[in-house]
Write a structure and sequence with these properties.
- The chain has 108 residues and is mainly α.
- The protein has two domains: 55 residues; 48 residues.
- Helices cover 81% and strands 0% of the residues.
- The chain is built from four helices and no strands.
- Bound molecules: zinc ion (ZN).
- The site of zinc ion has 6 residues, from helix 1 and helix 3.
- The site of zinc ion (ZN) has 6 residues, from helix 1 and helix 3.
Length: 108
């Protein structure tokens, strides 16, 4: 099936999304083999589609719940780490104070 560039450009989006019918797929592949400008468009679009899939931004096709949970877990870990640092710092400060006061008492 021969298709025009207009139709090919329309179908390339569907083709990359995997939503094109087998007939449309074949038509797009056939057109891309013969048409340089549509091939360029296809490459650009494919690169963008792959970039979108690779990034952590939640897309409409996959629910953002898992990404959201992961972010919350990461934030939770960081809060816990900071909390531990704070407790550790407070304990160290308390120890220094008690040592200093013992020295102070002994010194008198
Ligand atoms: Zn074309």
């Amino acid at each position: 099936m021969k298709i025009t560039c207009d139709i090919a450009l329309d179908l390339i989006g569907l083709y990359l999304d995997g939503e094109a019918s087998p007939d449309s797929k074949r038509a797009v592949e056939e057109h891309l083999r013969e048409c340089e400008s549509c091939r360029k468009y296809y490459r650009t679009l494919r690169k963008n589609t792959i970039n979108q899939t690779d990034s952590n931004f939640p897309s409409l096709s996959s629910p953002p719940d898992s990404a959201y949970e992961e972010i919350m877990i990461r934030i939770g870990k960081r809060v816990r780490n900071t909390g531990m640092l704070f407790v550790g710092g407070a304990l160290t400060f308390a120890a220094i104070c008690s040592i200093a006061s013992i020295h102070f008492i002994k010194g008198r």
